[in-house]
Specification:
The protein is mainly beta. Helix content is about 5%, strand content about 55%. Strand 2 and strand 3 (about 85-95) form a beta hairpin. The two termini are about 25 Å apart.
């Protein structure tokens, strides 16, 4: 191809893609080609021209990918106004009902759309300002619709019509934590703990079963402590989009903003705040604490494990708990020497406020059950609702009707605007017990929340509750009636979560406080304060100082911990040197450590040398290390502590899962409690890094991303900086908004192959027309024919068959040789 022909072709392409829906007529006299009568510019005569036929295409709406997979889209000739307003037949995409249903059009807009092709295609272009442009080189149909025709969307939220239930599949999520403790004197102990979820998705339904188990063995002891497997609940649920609610059937827990939690077997229909736009969603609980060593942290709700992981020594914060969790959480910090620190946290929530005219509700019915899955008591019915009366006022309340136990609650919420939000409620309980007769009592509660933007501070939650001696929760009643247990009746509860930023001092302060008193057992307390400050000393920038202190009182046992850390960054991103000092009761620990992350940011590690003294014990020294890494098939942690006089220990943990669908199967890291996930498909290309490299596609081109938020607008992308040289991603970002528990599926447009020059000749020794399109069997465009059959091909593989198309229906097929030499021209025979 001559230089002149190349420049003319480039000019033609520039003109085409700078037009917007206009026809173009070409003067072929300017083309420096030996065969001017063998030129096909049909595909260039209209913006986005495509030959009639069926194509497998992804959908893109206003710059964002939509839909769960590729769609078969047929292009049919339809009369349009072409150049100079002349009527011409041009191929146009046939937009079907299933495509329109995921575009998020307003209902009135959808009802007013006209059709063509005997009602089989919807005329989306009748909406003013709408554009539909096919991009074969990206296997994408680009749709642009003005926002005026669409439902409300934001950068983090899409309307229900754009939510995706995912595909059918099964899953197995697991979390394993194992350790060996070797005391200086005494017997060795080996422990293994595991928990997770098995499940199956069918359409919009999710079937789940949570499991947990443990095994403990002590050397020289024939009686081992084991609880090999316990299914804590079995249930099924689905989203009801029109009601912004979840329907659940089976074993579950009451998660109420008014009443205390208890177990039951039955059915529930309840509003889900996660289906609301982000500014209306609830508060997700956060737990802070201090680990003295490489410690295991376990969070339980009604005996069910919600969180189980190993953390390095120092302060920690657990922020990824489900916002739907309500009630008291039991927290255990299990140190490597076997010492356990326990405390309880009450899951606070933002005061009950609802938009004007909006109703949020919970309807539950069934029978209560114990830890062994046995039902007990009569059939009950529980209701809860909140109604927004105005921008400022909300009324709410609820009932529990269960034969000999009944409860009634009523409250009011007030938006104080500049002063925050406040709610107050009162609950009356009525219980009839065989041995104690009738008991009734009241419980009062006050809740407050406020964000002080001008002061960079917020009271996430502050609350007070007082319950009379004879007031009973449903769980109190069940324990009293069936187990003669009258303990655990709450008296007073104070709780607060506060955060403050001091930007002028590069300092942040956090406070968490929980104080619970009971009528017939000892108090429970938890205090935690954390101060972080960044500073510059002797020219060294970003030196950080952390001061943390906590006090926990659980079943009459006090535990006070004070922790201080100074962290000094090393030059050229070579990690940090830390000094830690801690005091636990009368025991003091001093530690010097080194922390760093790997170059790919997928792993971190630290090494420490520590001394311990005090508490009527001899001084001891220890060496410890911690290593954590994200791998394509599991998140793994390994830790070890070697002590000269105290307990030495070795630990390992792994968190991952297996997801199996009709599209294929993949092991993956993360994934816990059967949560939402996205299976990504790179069309059989292995080793493609996704989600910052945390996910790498397997040998079938599949990977699973597990850090997906339900009902959020999630973007997942290929890490282009880590792609091998022979892999090209023409579509590197996909979007999803998945319902809870969904297994989403998205396909990336990825080409793995070589690049080469070729001369394509027909059987009669002529060439395909100038401008003919070269594509693979999937419809992906690989190149364009220029003068004398010359073409530059990309993304080709040995022995691959390719198509050459021109005109309305003409095409021929050729085959790539089994050896590709990029520097030499391939001579290909194309047969029609």
């Amino acid at each position: 191809m001559s230089k002149k022909s190349k420049s003319i072709l480039a000019t033609i392409l520039f003109i085409i893609y700078s037009q917007n829906g206009f026809s173009i007529e070409f003067n072929l006299d300017v083309v420096d080609s030996k065969a001017k009568d063998n030129i096909d510019f049909n595909r260039f005569s209209e913006s986005g021209y495509i030959l009639p036929g069926k194509y497998q295409l992804n959908l893109e709406l206003n710059g964002q990918g939509i839909g769960s997979s590729t769609y078969t889209i047929e292009f049919l000739e339809k009369e349009n106004k072409g150049f100079d307003n002349k009527k011409v037949l041009l191929p146009q995409a046939c937009i079907t009902d299933d495509i329109v249903s995921i575009l998020g059009l307003k209902e009135k807009v959808k009802e007013g759309l006209s059709t063509w092709n005997n009602g089989q295609c919807i005329d989306l272009l009748s909406l003013k300002g709408t554009e539909i442009v096919p991009k074969l080189n990206e296997s994408t149909l680009v749709i642009k619709i003005p926002q005026i025709w669409l439902e409300y969307i934001s950068s983090t939220w899409l309307p229900p019509s754009r939510w995706d239930d995912g595909i059918t599949g099964a899953l197995l999520d697991y979390n394993i934590n194992a350790n060996v403790a070797i005391p200086h004197e005494g017997r060795n102990t080996q422990n293994i703990f595991y928990n997770g979820t098995v499940g199956y998705n069918l359409g919009s339904w999710r079937v789940r079963s949570d499991y947990q188990g443990s095994y403990t063995r002590t050397s020289g002891n024939d009686e081992n402590n084991k609880n090999l497997l316990d299914f804590t609940r079995v249930y099924a649920y689905r989203a009801i989009r029109s009601l912004k609610s979840n329907l659940t059937v089976g074993e579950n827990f009451i998660n109420s903003n008014i009443f205390n939690s208890w177990r039951y077997t039955g059915i529930s229909l309840e509003s889900d705040d996660r289906m609301l736009s982000p500014q209306l969603r609830g508060y997700a609980p956060q737990i802070t604490g201090i680990a003295e060593t490489n410690a295991r942290v376990v969070v339980k709700h009604q005996g069910r494990i919600l969180y189980d992981s190993t953390v390095p020594a120092g302060p920690f914060a657990i922020q990824d708990l489900d916002s739907s969790v309500r009630g008291k959480l039991d927290v255990e910090i299990i140190e490597q020497n076997g010492k356990t620190n326990q405390f309880q946290i009450d899951t606070a929530y933002v005061p009950y406020l609802t938009r004007p005219g909006q109703v949020r509700y919970k309807l539950v019915s069934g029978r209560s059950r114990d830890k062994l899955h046995n039902t007990e008591g009569p059939i009950f019915a529980s209701t809860e609702a909140a109604v927004g009366l105005s921008n400022a006022w909300t009324v709410y309340g609820g009932t529990i009707l269960a034969g000999n136990f009944n409860s009634l609650a009523i409250g009011v919420g007030r938006d104080l605007f500049a002063l925050g939000a406040l709610s107050a409620d009162i609950t009356q309980s009525y219980a009839k017990l065989n041995d104690r007769g009738s008991m009734q009592g009241k419980s009062w509660r006050l809740s407050y929340s406020k964000r002080f933007d001008n002061y960079d501070a917020d009271v996430t939650f502050a609350g007070y509750r007082f319950s009379e001696r004879n007031y009973m929760t449903m769980q109190n009643y069940l324990d009293a009636r069936y187990r003669s247990d009258f303990t655990g009746k709450e008296k007073e509860l104070y709780t607060i979560s506060f955060n403050k930023g001091l930007s002028e001092y590069n300092t942040t302060i956090g406070l968490q406080y929980n104080h619970q008193t009971y009528w017939e057992q000892s108090d429970s307390d938890y205090y935690s304060i954390n101060i972080n400050k960044y500073m510059t000393i002797l020219g060294i920038k970003n030196i950080s100082l952390n001061l943390s202190a906590s006090r926990s009182k659980f079943y009459g046992k006090d535990n006070d911990v004070f922790f201080a850390r100074v962290s000094i960054p090393l030059e050229s991103n070579k990690g940090y040197i830390n000094y830690d000092g801690s005091k636990n009761s009368s025991i003091y620990t001093h530690n010097i450590g080194y922390f760093n992350t790997t170059d790919d940011n997928l792993a971190n590690y630290n090494l420490n040398i520590a001394t311990t003294h005090g508490g009527n014990m001899d001084s001891s020294s220890s060496f410890s290390g911690f290593y954590g890494r994200y791998t394509p098939i599991a998140n793994v942690n390994a830790n070890a502590t070697i002590s000269d006089k105290n307990t030495s220990s070795f630990g390992f943990s792994a968190n991952g899962g297996l997801t199996v669908t009709s599209k294929g199967a993949a092991l993956h890291s993360g994934g816990f409690n059967g949560g939402t996930r996205l299976m990504v498909d790179t069309e059989g290309v292995a080793g493609v890094p996704v989600d910052g490299g945390r996910v790498t596609t397997n040998n079938r081109g599949l990977g699973v991303v597990t850090d997906i938020n339900s009902y959020y607008r999630n973007e997942t992308s290929i890490d282009l900086t880590k792609l091998p040289n022979n892999i090209e991603a023409t579509q590197a970002i996909v979007e999803s908004s998945l319902t809870e528990g969904a297994i989403g599926y998205r396909k990336f447009e990825v080409l793995k192959g070589d690049k080469a020059f070729a001369i394509i000749r027909l059987k009669d020794n002529t060439y395909p027309p100038f401008g003919s399109v070269i594509s693979n069997m999937k419809g992906r465009e690989l190149g364009i024919i220029s003068d004398n059959g010359f073409a530059w091909l990309t993304g080709i593989s040995p022995n691959e068959e390719i198509n050459v198309s021109w005109g309305a229906k003409q095409k021929c097929v050729t085959k790539i040789p089994n050896h590709i030499e990029p520097r030499n021209k391939m001579l290909l025979l194309c047969e029609q």
